[in-house]
Design brief:
Layout lengths: L4 H14 L6 H10 L3 H6 L7 H15 L4 H5 L1 E4 L2 E4 L9 H17 L5 E6 L5 H9 L3 E7 L2 H13 L4 E5 L11 E6 L4 E2 L8 H6 L6 E2 L5 H9 L4 E10 L5 H11 L4 E6 L5 E8 L1
Parallel strand pairs: 3-4, 3-6, 4-5, 6-9, 7-8
Antiparallel strand pairs: 1-2, 9-11, 10-11
């Protein structure tokens, strides 16, 4: 029995909603299965699915109903307009992190109008921050670190795919950056308190790497390490940008204010009005 795109989508969205899952994911899956852009899919909603497309769509939809992220089924996620391969070894890039990149690019332009700058991304995961920054600011010399070799392999493939020249280094947090001074250091470290795991969705808990999500000391462990280590690594004129949990603004602001007493430190809200970033301008 033939099934039109719009019919399959309506059923799929209803099933996802019944499990409190993101119904928009059905459209992303359909775009992937039919190899259509968003605009083409909307224009072709009354086209019938081929038997092959129908089979693959419902197979993927059943995986999503079991909690598997649509990004793992289609194998990628867009971030800052660039495609990034994702799998179980890396976090799926979030829109909030795009705001960190945007804010860092804006502030770096003010601090360093032109010329090469040395940039580091600590805990790079898929490479989203490092690669997007490099693509938007080609004169930057970008290094990206991660403790996970598997994550670095994903990041390297993403750099190759997006034609971004990045130096990837395996190591714990800022340790691989020692011995040099840096103009910009960015990081989206693990910041979810261990106690919050029980309230998180199955999609996140079962399919994303826990070492990239959770941190001890009420989620502040890695910020404390960064506040301790970064003063030795920053140039005299420099920028630090980190993503934070929405209840951590005051605590992380205080950590960096103590580490950099003469810096201009901002707590910046995301598009949803929640504290999401700390920027530290050393001038």
């Amino acid at each position: 029995m033939t099934e039109k795109i719009i019919e399959a989508l309506k059923k799929a969205e209803s099933l996802l909603e019944s499990k409190d899952l993101d119904s928009h994911a059905a459209q992303l899956l359909m775009q992937f299965i039919t190899d259509k852009s968003n605009a083409s899919l909307l224009a072709d909603m009354r086209e019938p699915l081929t038997p092959h497309q129908k089979r693959d769509f419902w197979k993927g939809l059943n995986e999503m109903l079991d909690g598997k992220p649509v990004q793992h089924i289609i194998g990628e996620e867009l971030f800052y307009g660039y495609p990034f391969k994702v799998n179980e070894h890396v976090l799926i890039p979030r829109p909030e992190t795009e705001e960190l990149v945007q804010g860092a690019l804006y502030r770096a332009k003010k601090l360093f109008a032109s010329g090469p700058i040395k940039v580091a991304d600590i805990g790079t995961g898929s490479g989203a921050i490092a690669i997007s920054f490099k693509k938007e600011r080609p004169d930057a010399e970008v290094t990206a670190t991660d403790i996970s070799r598997e994550a670095l392999a994903v990041a390297q493939r993403n750099a190759d795919r997006n034609q971004a020249e990045i130096c990837f280094v395996q190591g714990d947090l800022a340790e691989p950056l020692a011995g040099k001074v840096w103009d910009v250091i960015l990081s989206n470290p693990p910041y979810i308190a261990l106690e919050e795991a029980q309230s998180m969705s199955k999609t996140v808990l079962d399919y994303e790497p826990h070492h990239a999500l959770f941190a001890e000391e009420n989620g502040l462990f890695f910020y404390k390490r960064l506040a301790k280590d970064l003063p030795k690594l920053m140039n005299k004129r420099a920028l630090i940008g980190v993503e934070i949990g929405h209840q951590q603004g005051e605590s992380v602001h205080a950590l960096f204010a103590e580490a950099f007493p003469d810096a201009v430190i901002e707590t910046v809200k995301d598009i949803n009005g929640k504290d999401r970033m700390i920027f530290c301008e050393i001038v």
